[in-house]
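Treating backbone geometry as a discrete language has practical consequences that deserve illustration. Part of our work consisted of pairing the sequence of a single chain with a tokenised description of its backbone. What the numbers capture is local backbone geometry rather than side-chain detail. For completeness, the protein is quoted in full, as a sequence line and a line of structure tokens:
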Amino acid sequence: MTLERSFGLNLPDYPWDAMAPYVEEARQHPDGAVNLSIGTPVDPTPDVVQRALRDAANAPGYPTTHGTVELREAISEWYRRRRNVVGLDPADILPTVGSKELVAWLPTLLGLGAGDVVVRPTVAYPTYDMGAHFAGATPVAADSLAELDADTRARVRLVWVNSPSNPTGAVHDVEALRAIVDEARSLGAMVASDECYAELGWGIWDPATGGQPVPSILDARVSGGSSDLLLSVYSLSKQSNVAGYRAAFAAGDSKVLANLINSRKHAGMIVPFPVQEAMRAALSDDAHVAAQKDLYRARREQLIPALEAFGLTIHSSDAGLYLWATAGEDTWITVKRFAELGIIVGPGTFYGEAGNGFVRVALTGSDERVRAAATRLSA
């Protein structure tokens, strides 16, 4: 008698696989497809970053999990200069292999398990849920802890904040963030803030046009001057076009960071030294970030009127690389109508039940492809 055993995690299918027929239909357009579905940067990696990577290419030894002191000091200075976070100890900073791996493994590395609750926004990046599943914890969708019943509230161990939001582009102001922090702390729960789009604010959140910077969870106005139970997560993928480098970092609670560093040492979760040097160069140069943002601003200004001409209404979209829009119909009907024009967009249903009826349109096409999409939609 043979004992049958199964191997692997019993996870949902990867959602983007459902897009295959719409991608194929869009490819049939005589002028080619315009892919505005996934936020993958298409513009060149800045020379200052490429040069730093090349200069550090001779790296025969193992890098440190905690990252070089020079990198962590550059990150601390960046938080001071760009995020209004003063006095961040470089010891309380950790480089990560992109931000997605940290999002996916954070509940496990925090020691969460069966019975523990991970709260994420009702419309959210699906990896927050996957991270809870990997740890054996329970993901719960809620935009406020006040929405939860008493039993669920008692089991909350981790609260994810995503501001600016992927996919909606909504931004929490200082007061909203402080309310989340205060309530989570009252439960003894950790708050992890995914802030990867913070440099890409628009309108009131665009300092280049008279707005204010997007606030960080570590801003003293939010944190009360203490990083206890707080973690800020950031990625350079979007602002510096280094998605292929897997360059990100986390900062915050010193005890939690020390534990994460120790766990990651055991697991071999290490950012390569050349990438650490590229990150240091990127964080020390604001000019390329401003130049890239100008490109996205121009693409955004082309797409908004074109989407409205196609019958869509833009919601939120105050920051980030996406326009969150609805035509007042089922998501997949809208996705199909775009595909018929040779345009691929992201279905809102991939981001939770509350995303039904919406599509996410990325700004990450080339100038030529964005112009093509705008022309097709306006026609």
